[in-house]
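Could someone model zinc ion with this protein?
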Amino acid sequence: MATRVQHDYGVSAILTVPNVRVVIHVADWPMELMVDGGEENFLRVIPEAPVLSQPHLDFFESILRDRLRHRDWRQLRGSLINLDLDQMELVSKWLASAGYIPQAAMSEPSARYFSREDVANIANETLGWKPEYVTPAIIASLKKYRDVFAWLMGLGQQQFRRAVEQAFEFDDDRRERNRIYLREILSGDTRLKLKDPAIAFMAESKAPAGTDPETVRLCLQGTGTAQALSARFWWHSDGKPIVTIDTNSPLNAIGLSIHIDRNFSRRNWIVCDTCGKGRDRTRGRDRFCSARCRHRFNTTKRREKIKLLLESERAWAELPEWKRRGKERWRWISARVERVSRGNLNVDPSWAKRELSKIKARKQNRRRDVTRKAQ
Ligand SMILES: [Zn+2]
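Reply:
Sure, complex below.
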């Protein structure tokens, strides 16, 4: 079955299964994040004019809506996985880009309307987020999801399917265990000790140590915060069919994007060889997150090579005559570089010769300059 995974998001499809576009639809309206890290699934509405000033209305009606409509869930997924949770400024920025607003900034926690002050508070670049609103509970919740998402993105298609199966098994085992306990308690016998199915689940699925079994299960069995999501099947005026999956939760949208990518695309998650940051790899065999990192890696490697080359040249010079006999200088030097670096650095004898003569020429020029200046 041919599938096409699109790179852009917004209102366009995340995936096209022959003729059917699959769209994740998240309301282009902010979602409140509570101080305990949970999502408030109720979306507040704005009071009618003239309570709000025109600039504030504009902010809501065009700027915010437009920004939220164009959220790219794959990009948000990547930036969450790479997010440094010790940097509150960065966390605030991520939360705003995902479409969260801080409940702590609202004048009335469970009101159905934004008050005038609420609107004034969130009508800005960071949607009202300030580092002090990022509570330890919010950090803990983000960490839970970040770690599980990072792990899921690194799994192959088969491993991913197997992990989903194991999550379903875990859910059954847990229910069965609760039934047995209940029976024991009702019969007055409480000596029974059963193994915690979460331990077996974490070991079998090879979920990373320290991740929370419940979050792992929910991300595999469901989409992150929901067990299942409903979808609408409809068609455009041009007759093209569309499946729209609705959710108001940014975390769910990210969880869903993982299921879509793990099942239908060849995307995978790579960790940059230079800076250790992860990113989506859509094609090829690139090991770097950016051109800068590739350049930095190559420069470092070149420096290491030159250093070993110079060292090997000295070693050659110190070699007694009888040991040099029958050996070719450049071949011996490049073989030594390869041996000392344990095969990490490959040097061609002709390259070695060229580089070393360039270095020598540069040194000589410098010496000449110094003598000229001294005169
Ligand atoms: Zn990098």
